Amino acid sequence: MKISTKGRYSLRMLVDLAEHKNEGFVSLKDISQRQGISRKYLEQIVTLLNRPDILRTNRGNKGGYMLAKEPSQYTIGQILRITEGGLYPVSCLGDEPNRCERCGYCKTLPVWKGLEKVINKYLDSITLQDILGIYKDTCADKYHI
Q1: pLDDT for the residue 127
Q2: Per the count of CB atoms within 10 A, which of 11, 38, 111, 141 is most buried?
Q3: What is the tens place of the pLDDT at every residue in 3-13?
Q4: pLDDT in tens, 89-107
Q5: What is the value of pTM for the model shown?
Q6: C-beta separation of 46 from 6 below 8 A
Q7: CA 57, CA 91: separation in Å to the nearest integer?
């Protein structure tokens, strides 16, 4: 399994919005400059994330985007499943029911199911708020006066 650029950039965009949540609506231009992601690419990402449970939008001069909920209510797994379409280590697990012709006698299928379970459990245990806290904790040592 490999997380695409779309998934990684979506996560960076939402972390940026979480970090600037007290500033109101944030423009894509500002996110683009801070994150080093082209505005055009962010526009593509917004179309995936533009759901009532993920983003709030505002058009006009003071327009932009903000999180619809608190950063602690977004899991990394939730975000990546939206942008990646799933977190399957092998493609046959993405079908329900599994349509692989070997599914009934595949000796390795339990390995892939176990890996999927571990991946989802891990990514669902981390929130946007956790990422902000981890960054704050690890970067606190690097600040010198």
Answers
A1: 97
A2: 11
A3: 999 999 999 99
A4: 988 888 888 888 888 889 9
A5: 0.86
A6: no
A7: 34
State yes or no: pLDDT of 144 exceeds 70. no
Residues 16, 128: contact at Cβ < 8 Å? no
Quickly list DSSP for the chain: ----HHHHHHHHHHHHHHHTGGG-SB-HHHHHHHHT--HHHHHHHHHHH-STTTEEEE-STT-EEEESS-GGG-BHHHHHHHHHS---SSGGGGSSS---TTTTT-SSHHHHHHHHHHHHHHHHT-BHHHHHHHHHHHHHTT---
Residue 14 has which token pair?
Answer: 């939402």
pLDDT confidence of residue 60? 83
Structure tokens at 78: 């939730």
The answer to whether the beta carbons of residues 87 and 116 sit under 8 Å apart is yes
Alpha-carbon distance values, 61 to 2, 21, 27, 95 (Å): 38, 18, 10, 44
* Token reading at 35: 């994150």
CB count, 10 Å around CB of 139? 9
Backbone angles phi, psi at 59, to 5 degrees: -95, 160
